[in-house]
Amino acid sequence: MHRLWLVQIAPNSTPPRAARYESVWRQKNPALHVDYLRSRDAEELIRRHYPAFLRSYRSLQTGVERADFVRYLAIHRYGGVYADDDVVPIMPIGRWLPTFGWRTTPRNALVVGVERARPPLLAQFVFASVPRHPLLWAVAEEVHARVQRLTAAHRFSVLERTGPLAWTSAILRFIDSHAAPRDENRSVVDETQGRLIQLEKDGQQWSLLVLPYRAFGVNRAHQTQLRKEPSTQHLVHHQFLGSWKSNEYWHARQQLPSALSSPSPEGIR
Description:
The protein has helices at residues 16-28, 39-49, 54-59, 63-78, 96-99, 134-149, 157-161, 164-178, 213-216, 247-255, 258-261, and strands spanning 3-8, 33-38, 80-83, 87-89, 109-116, 121-129, 195-201, 204-211, 236-238. By secondary structure, the protein is an alpha/beta fold. The strands form two sheets. It has a seven-stranded mixed sheet, sandwiched between helices. A two-stranded antiparallel ribbon has the order 4-9.
């Protein structure tokens, strides 16, 4: 997973912040190949490989929603690590899983982290996957359906339509439908080393590795009972510098859990 994707649905030049943090990624990971997916590239990716989603993508009015949608498709197509341009690596990518006791990368894995436990919210500002993981396709289909169904009624609709609520709902639903029969524990939250969930789709074996909150999610703005220590297991620092975000955004992020309640399967907490 030594390919990093940074999405810039804006000008064709690299913003200074992205360039600064890209240098940190490269320092931590000398062999890392960094790809910038800009507006024109994003639309071409969807037109060429995901034409069924093109109309929904073009209907999105904000750059942040387009960046949400295309990150799922880019990693589905090519694999690698996705990170928002304000995510700073603390630890080299190659040490992420060994830090939590995973000596080898689980086969055909999507790696995500917990942002909140109850109800569960999974971070989508950084994640990693092999190409063609069916869970990412399920997320893209979820976003496509929500864009058709939900209007941009308020400035935080992005959370529900394309962002972390859509992401988490799709993942929980996929677990409910495709967790391997032998995997009886389907909880996505494990405070120790994370939770590995075995999945089956069309006769093929896949996996989902959900790292604990302290891997990706720790932020001093969070009010959470989740375990933040040891700090030596913090893998990245997300600074939440998006210009559309504010203290009001944090309130909305905490007050929008209801969108998770209906699709979440019984037993997932």
